[in-house]
Automatic annotation (TrEMBL):
Keywords: Hydrolase. The keyword Hydrolase applies. The keyword Hydrolase applies. This is Acyl-CoA thioesterase. The lineage of its organism: Bacteria, Bacillati, Actinomycetota, Actinomycetes, Kitasatosporales. Pfam families: 4HBT (PF03061). Belongs to the acyl coenzyme A hydrolase family. Coiled coil: none annotated. It comes from the Bacteria. Residues 18-131 form the HotDog ACOT-type domain.
Length: 182
């Protein structure tokens, strides 16, 4: 088997991480609050999905859909009047999927104090064709030492995601085979 048959995406030129890295910035207003008066986590999650989706689309050169979002971490509350920056980049690519890493930073909109990290997340996007079927993505080419570390860490998460899915499927199949009803 040729290299191209084994790794068909080798036919698509790879893209450096920096080519699709994106920052989405947004000022938080009273429309964004929860019942406690701080910013609703779902508002932040939407910004995270939006930024990651832009990155996945730019990297894959077309539409991409969110397949999963994991390890969404909220480190500090976000407040009305915070200017939130959502920084996203492709950490890793598979055949048709990409892991996008996102960091969320916040600073007061009218102060020159440094922005503080308030959250982070990892999302998997699948590139899709016009029929919504997965299509191949260019390989991401990590450039800096930090990009390379993120690539390696993303591979670890990928291994764990697949192992977890497989283990749960096996358990469910076993229970179904034993006639156990939920
Ligand atoms: C994501 C989707 C395209 C996957 O389709 P599928 O028929 O299951 O295709 P595959 O099993 O070949 O998966 C495609 C890729 O996505 C990855 N993937 C699929 N589901 C995943 C999950 N839950 N977590 C992580 N990766 C996942 C696969 O590992 C594969 O990656 P690879 O080609 O790099 O190895 C399909 O499930 C879908 O359209 N989901 C809805 C997406 C959507 O509407 N998102 C918005 C949410 S509101």
């Amino acid at each position: 088997m040729t290299d191209q048959a084994r790794h068909p995406q080798a036919a698509i030129p790879g893209k450096p991480t920096a080519a699709s890295r994106t920052t989405l910035s947004h000022i938080m207003t009273h429309n964004d609050t929860n019942l406690l008066g701080t910013v609703h986590g779902g508002v932040i999650m939407k910004l995270v999905d939006d930024a990651a989706g832009a990155v996945a689309g730019r990297h894959s050169g077309g539409p991409a859909v969110t397949a999963s979002m994991d390890e969404m971490v909220f480190l500090e509350p976000v407040r009305v009047g915070d200017l939130v920056h959502v920084k996203a980049q492709v950490n890793w690519t598979g055949r048709t999927s990409m892991e996008v890493g996102v960091r969320v930073l916040a600073e007061r909109w009218n102060e020159s104090t440094p922005a503080q990290q308030v959250g982070s997340a990892y999302l998997v996007f699948a590139a899709v064709d016009a029929d919504g079927k997965p299509r191949m993505v260019p390989e991401v080419l990590p450039e800096t030492g930090r990009d390379k570390r993120r690539y390696q860490e993303a591979q670890i998460r990928r291994t764990h995601r697949l192992a977890r899915r497989r283990a749960i499927k096996e358990l469910r199949d076993r229970r179904a085979a034993e006639g156990i009803e939920d």
